[in-house]
């Protein structure tokens, strides 16, 4: 392996931070077990500046997938063959179809014979007990448990690659009620297993509930509980269906029914995610929907809820200018910090971004949200309408204040600093004025906040520290079960682990 893949490529989101830039999906890209790799370039002033390489689209951590290849690297046929074999060997031990068969047999078993291996995260059939005898398992798996796989399975908490943050019941129910109130009949659930599960169980219990859901997720453990029409093993960073054309066709058909009317896509990607890669996949899914109708949906977009932290607003709007951010704070079960507490609550930074008309997104009044007639949208209780900005300006739920010098509203904890010529925390360190900016040469700012950079970057930069702190808190605030490293595929394949690809 020449050179070795630079660590932490998600730094690509912030130019300069990780020294890497994402160039995206490239035709003819080589594949790792997670589908086609993405193309990156090293940035910065090092010897290898601008050198391009492919790396795994799904795994931020090289421990999870160490795929790496320079773009201009010659790969021998022997190595190509070895790589193909490696990719084959790193697929799950059972196919989705086999898992569906296994499930059918499993539900025929009496309660006393229904076991779930916690170590392998797998439903066990009696003739497999022996094999798992040294493992911890759960007994008497009820039908109710089978209908709530997100409760049965451990949330993946491999922090870098696939941390799973499950919706709190309250937020999940809010989302589903909103979806049904808006008249949607089908939900493409991309990385939202708990929403999918809520829809599925409601549909099986209430006869007049006609909403259907298709789950697309990289967590293959879910294939044990859902048929091939209910779940597709999918990678949302490169729009890759592990089940090939048949699975892609399942998704296409799902989007097509009723001429694609009343379909909404809901997605809650990993927060560390590369917004650009996600946006590119989502645009492809939107394009599939658009093709479903002969009239081309009159230039409409497939309705979408993209659930993501508020500080990614400018990044998301860069790719989806038709989107707006709702004030609703999405809560999670396995976030120690962002749960709806008894006495007041910690504010969750996670929001809903949507291309639907904001005034139609009715937020719960009993939780303090109110309608702002001027903005024509629901806002959180602390979000005051600023006369000067002519908008409800708070992003984080607290009341923001207007700074006449900055000509905009800022966080309540900020003060205008004459040295920096902008608002900042009182105890901030003023940007050095003597050094001069690396990019434009002017004094008064560093290259990170250079006004000649595209505005999104500088805007992000101002909040960078706070944002990193918050992200860290989110990530540390999850439950304490031991990390499940290889759970993206249900079983460990230790044998080939060390082989180079
Ligand atoms: N709040 C959601 C879960 C969000 S956690 C709910 O409760 O339903 C992020 C989800 O995205 C997880 O289900 C995870 O398995 C999935 N995921 C992570 N990386 C992915 C990828 N590359 N492609 C598809 N899904 C992915
Ligand atoms: Zn990979
Ligand atoms: Zn307003
Ligand atoms: Zn203002
Ligand atoms: Zn100011």
Structural commentary:
The structure is a single chain. This protein is α+β, with helices and mostly antiparallel strands. The protein is built from eleven helices and 25 strands. It has helices at 77-89, 96-108, 143-146, 149-152, 169-181, 193-205, 244-256, 275-290, 313-319, 455-462, 464-476, and strands at 20-25, 31-32, 35-36, 38-42, 52-55, 68-70, 115-117, 122-124, 137-138, 186-190, 212-217, 231-235, 240-241, 263-267, 304-309, 324-325, 350-354, 370-372, 377-379, 385-386, 391-392, 401-403, 408-410, 414-417, 422-425. The strands form eight sheets. It has an eight-stranded mixed sheet, with helices on both faces. Strands 1-4-5-6 form a four-stranded antiparallel sheet. A hairpin with a 4-residue loop joins strand 18 (370-372) and strand 19. Helix 5 packs across helix 6 (193-205). The longest helix is centred in the middle third of the chain and has 16 residues, at 275-290. 36% of the residues are buried. Bound molecules: S-adenosyl-L-homocysteine and zinc ion (ZN) (4 copies).
Quick synopsis:
23% of the residues lie in helices and 18% in strands. It has 501 residues and is an alpha+beta fold.
Mind telling me the C-alpha Rg? 24 Å
Please state how the strands of the largest beta sheet are arranged side by side: 13-12-11-10-14-15-17-16
Q: What is the average of the pLDDT values?
A: 83
Continuous helix count: 11
What small-molecule ligands were found? S-adenosyl-L-homocysteine, zinc ion
- Structural class assignment: alpha+beta
What spatial form do the alpha-carbon principal axes imply?
A: globular
Provide the low-confidence segments as ranges: 1-17, 454-487, 490-501
User: Termini separation (Å)?
Assistant: 8 Å
């Amino acid at each position: 392996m020449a050179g070795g893949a630079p660590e932490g490529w998600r730094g690509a989101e912030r130019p300069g931070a990780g020294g890497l830039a994402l160039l995206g999906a490239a035709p003819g890209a080589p594949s790792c077990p997670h589908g086609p790799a993405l193309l990156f370039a090293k940035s910065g002033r090092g010897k290898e500046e601008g050198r391009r390489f492919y790396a795994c689209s799904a795994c931020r951590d090289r421990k999870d997938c160490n795929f790496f290849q320079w773009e201009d690297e010659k790969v021998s046929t022997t190595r190509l063959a070895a790589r193909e074999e490696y990719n084959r060997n790193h697929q799950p031990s059972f196919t989705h179809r086999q898992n569906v068969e296994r499930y059918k047999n499993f539900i025929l078993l009496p309660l006393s014979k229904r076991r779930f291996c916690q170590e392998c995260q797998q439903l066990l059939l009696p003739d497999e007990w022996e094999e798992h005898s040294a493992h911890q398992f759960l007994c008497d798996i009820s039908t109710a448990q089978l209908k709530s796989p997100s409760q049965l399975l451990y949330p993946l908490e491999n922090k870098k690659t696939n941390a799973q943050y499950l919706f709190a019941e309250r937020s999940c129910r809010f989302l589903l009620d909103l979806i049904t109130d808006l008249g949607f009949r089908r939900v493409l659930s991309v990385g939202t297993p708990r929403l999918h599960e809520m829809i599925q169980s409601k549909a099986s219990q209430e006869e007049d509930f006609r909403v259907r859901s298709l789950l697309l997720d990289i967590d293959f453990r879910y294939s044990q509980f859902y048929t091939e029409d209910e779940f597709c093993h999918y990678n949302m960073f490169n729009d890759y269906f592990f089940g090939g054309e048949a699975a892609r066709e399942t998704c296409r058909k799902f989007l097509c029914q009723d001429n694609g009317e009343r379909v909404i896509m809901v997605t809650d990607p990993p927060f560390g995610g590369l917004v650009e890669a996600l946006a590119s996949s989502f645009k492809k899914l939107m394009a599939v929907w658009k093709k479903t109708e002969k009239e081309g949906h009159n230039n409409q977009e497939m309705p979408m809820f993209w659930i993501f932290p508020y500080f990614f607003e400018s990044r998301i709007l860069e790719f989806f200018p038709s989107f707006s951010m709702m004030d609703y704070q999405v809560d999670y079960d396995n976030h120690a910090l962002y749960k709806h507490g008894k006495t007041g609550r910690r504010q969750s930074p996670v929001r809903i971004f949507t291309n639907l008309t904001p005034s139609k997104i009715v937020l719960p009044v009993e939780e303090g949200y109110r309608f702002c007639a001027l903005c024509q949208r629901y806002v959180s209780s602390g979000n005051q309408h600023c006369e000067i900005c002519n908008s409800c300006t708070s992003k984080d739920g607290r009341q923001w204040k207007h700074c006449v010098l900055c000509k905009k509203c800022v966080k309540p904890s900020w003060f205008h600093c004459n040295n920096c010529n902008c608002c900042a925390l009182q105890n901030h360190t003023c940007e050095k004025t003597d050094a001069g900016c690396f990019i434009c040469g002017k004094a008064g700012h560093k290259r990170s906040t250079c006004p000649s950079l595209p505005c999104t970057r500088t805007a992000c930069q101002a909040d960078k520290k706070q944002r990193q702190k918050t992200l860290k808190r989110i990530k540390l605030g999850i439950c304490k079960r031991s990390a499940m490293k290889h759970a993206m595929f249900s079983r460990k394949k230790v044998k080939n682990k060390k082989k180079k690809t």
